[in-house]
Amino acid sequence: MAVRLKPLLPLSVVPHNSNPSNLFFPFSKKSHFQASAAKMAANEVQSKASSNAKIIDSHLHVWASAEEAADKYPYFPGQEPTLPGHLQFLLQCMEEAHVDGALIVQPINHKFDHSLVTSVLKKHPSKFVGCCLANPAEDGSGVKQLEHLVLKDGYRAVRFNPYLWPSGQQMTNEIGKAMFSKAGELGVPVAFMCMKGLNLHISEIEKLCKEFPSTVVLLDHLAFCKPPTNDEENQAFSNLLKLSRFPQVYVKFSALFRVSRLPPPYQDLAPLLSQVVSSFGANRVMWGSDFPFVVPECGYKGAKESVSLIANEIPLSSSELEWIMGRTVMELFQGQWLPS
Q1: How far apart are CA 35 and CA 50, in angstroms?
Q2: The Amidohydrolase-related domain covers which part of the protein (predicted)?
Q3: 170 inside domain
């Protein structure tokens, strides 16, 4: 039986600085980050003890260890990982960072073979939700695959990677529309990975949102919008903010190391987060780590702490931060992570 998404009520957003560029305060790299992080962590323990708010990671990956790949879950040829991303490592990182649950996004390392992620979902059904990878094969088999992964294996989201579409074709082709429509029927959000820039895909996303308004959309990693330094980047970020006019669109404030131009805690993203929250509302924004890629960048725990440090500079209210750090994704996937 398909799980239907419950529409969210608008969240009143605290007014933010009208000139976000004034929000940036230079950070003195690692030592300042560690000191601030320690202070923030202490405050977080106190805050969490009083509110018991769950922390949910909206974007991470898990793949087989070398032993598991050799035995049961082979990597897709040419997509062998260069760093560890196995389940035990993930669980250890989440425990150390006090993260309660996560949305696992099918990694390209296993491409359309979802068996490893499916096994993780079955082992930890109350901890993880699965986001499968859409297969845009020209024979249309991806539509049935999507239906099977949702109805039989329990996946509750699907990722559209535009670079997997046949050469010269867009996500708005017949296959793309069929999968996007099917996702809406099944009540599962579609996540877009615009790694080469939002400007390349904005027209496709807008067309799909207009034609299928019941399909929820997630924009991975701020839609890969960096702090703008030229007209093209300004246009991309403007396009991102304009997508807020579609009530079905949500933004992942995830993989901060991919979009920031600074070392952790990625404080140049404060103006971007301020504007995204002002446009979408905090109840349409969600934090994600992009584990395991984030581990060598700032550590998994550092990825979580960076968001609170950035939020303090805007500033966001404690309620808004609670939405971003877990409540938004919990509302999207209702019944998965029960409040404490």
Answers
A1: 23
A2: 56-328
A3: yes
* Residue 214 domain boundaries: 55-62+82-332
Which among 94, 64, 130, 38 is positioned nearest to 291, based on CA atoms?
94
Length of the chain: 340
CATH number at 155 reads 3.20.20.140
* Mean pLDDT over each residue of the chain, to the nearest integer: 88
Residue 32 lies in a domain: no
Q: Within the chain, where are the H helices?
A: 29-51, 66-71, 87-97, 115-123, 141-151, 174-186, 202-211, 231-242, 256-259, 270-280, 295-298, 300-313, 318-322, 328-332
Query: What does each C-alpha distance from 144 to 56, 152, 169, 177 come to in angstroms?
Result: 30, 11, 20, 14
For the record, the structure tokens of 69 come out as 């790949």
- Burial label, 252 (beta-carbon count in 10 A; 0-12, 13-18, 19+): buried
Distance, in Å, from the CA atom of 200 to the CA atom of 193, rounded to the nearest integer, reads 11
pLDDT tens, 231-246?
999 999 999 999 999 9
Q: What is the pTM of this model?
A: 0.86
In-domain check, residue 143: yes
Alpha helices in 22-113 (DSSP H): 29-51, 66-71, 87-97
Closest CA to 214 of 170, 182, 252, 171: 182
